[in-house]
Amino acid sequence: MSNVFVLDTMHKPLDPVHPGYARKLLSSGKAAVYRRYPFTLILKKEVEKPITQPLRLKLDPGSKTTGIAIVNDASGEVVFAAELTHRGNQIKEALDARRGVRRGRRQRKTRYRKPRFDNRRRKQGWLPPSLESRCANILTWVNRLSRYCPITTISQELVTFDTHLMQNAEISGIEYQQGTLQGYELREYLLEKWERKCAYCGAKDVPLQIEHIQCRKKHGSSRVSNLCLACEPCNSKKDTQDIRDFLKDKPDVLKRILAHAKAPLRDASAVNATRWALYERLKATGFPVECGTGGRTKFNRSTQGLDKAHWIDAACVGKSTPDALLVDRVKPLLIKATGYGSRQMCLMDKYGFPRTKPKSAKVVKGFQTGDMVKAIVTTGKKLGTYVGRVAVRASGRFNITTATGTIQGIGSQHCTAIHKTDGYRY
Ligand SMILES: [Zn+2]
């Protein structure tokens, strides 16, 4: 388990404490639960001149999942970790569906419609809704965590490799060396340059190896312009053959590879629009933001022999990463963005006719879909204690989704809310 956040009586964050100590604080009545997710306590007595240690919030933004870690740079301890799952795809699907419905509606009557005045304009820094939501999710959590934890700096993985280093590599000929920081940066660069596929057969989503076009036995250099990526079968098939012999049946592939190897990758393709937008917004929060590269993240993770996980990647972002990260005890909080429900008044069948009644009140008996509840049922078939996310029904018989499954038809009288809905599931 991660450490527990603690607030003083003025709602100012103090140093997070060990879960054992938190339990002691609770049982002795010195603190009360302030918030369930992330678990936060509030002290009942004032602390005079609290001293807090500076903590660093580290982010590894991904398209599906973002890793979050709070690290104490001085001790190397990972204080808190979370994995935030976004709902970008869900948003895209919903918008596509809406577009389909509207198109259908327009096409039903095909009278001439005059084109409308072009009054659509996008604000500067506009992002597509699916990406905007990812950005907003991360920002929400940066703000939340900074309220519960004394964060002083932020680290973010911004690019996959160091562009400056790479330009030097292409021009002055820095050589690839396995296992070094430069090696990791070069590997990320090659992945980008060769579009993450095998140069010979175009295979995607397979482990790719770094391949010397002119092989090393024949005095091929380790310069970037002599490197490409190959899948395992292609690499072993080529072995020490000359590339001209290996690809003599495919002259166009040969020509393409030789030309591509010579050409350096343009900068623009290495920078991801969402990450830049996030970077700008993080800077606007007022915290100093450190940027890391994907190459360095991998280098830090592999040299410390850590497993691959989103939150561990986050902890490894950037130059500031301590030499020995303490991750043993940490269990990440799994967060999933769910939104606050839909505004659609009723569901339709495939012909566009209403399939359900208009939706009723959002709040039933004081509960709302998305609340985390604890239900204690003492009699009947549903006997037991359930903790999970509730889906309310107008009848007052709720469905509760726990870690193991969904239990249907639990009466509202058995439920107590432990965490009101805030757009996320835990
Ligand atoms: Zn291949």
Instruction: List ligands, each type once.
Output: zinc ion
The total of helices stands at 11
Main sheet specs: 7 strands, mixed
What Rg is obtained from the alpha carbons, in whole angstroms? Answer: 27 Å
- Strand line-up of the largest beta sheet: 11-8-5-6-7-12-20
Strand content: 15-25%
Would you report the number of β strands?
20
Distance between the termini: 14 Å
**What's the rounded overall pLDDT mean?**
88
Global structural class: alpha+beta
Helix proportion = 25-40%
Shape: globular
Quaternary structure state of the chains depicted:
single chain
Low-confidence stretches: none
In short:
With 426 residues, the protein is an alpha+beta fold.
Give the topology, please:
Layout: E1 4-7, E2 13-17, H1 19-27, E3 31-35, E4 40-43, E5 55-60, E6 65-72, E7 77-85, H2 88-108, H3 129-148, E8 151-159, H4 163-172, H5 181-193, E9 208-212, E10 227-231, H6 232-238, H7 243-246, H8 251-262, H9 273-284, E11 289-293, H10 294-303, H11 310-315, E12 333-337, E13 363-364, E14 367-368, E15 372-377, E16 384-391, E17 397-401, E18 406-411, E19 415-419, E20 424-425
Parallel strand pairs: 1-4, 5-8, 7-12, 8-11
Antiparallel strand pairs: 1-2, 3-4, 5-6, 6-7, 9-10, 12-20, 13-14, 15-16, 15-19, 16-17, 17-18
Helix pairs in contact: 2-3, 3-9, 5-10
The structure holds zinc ion.
Zinc ion (ZN) binds at residues 198, 200-201, 203, 230-231, 233-234.
Could you list some keywords that capture this structure?
426 residues; alpha+beta; 11 helices; 20 strands; 29% helix; globular; binds zinc ion
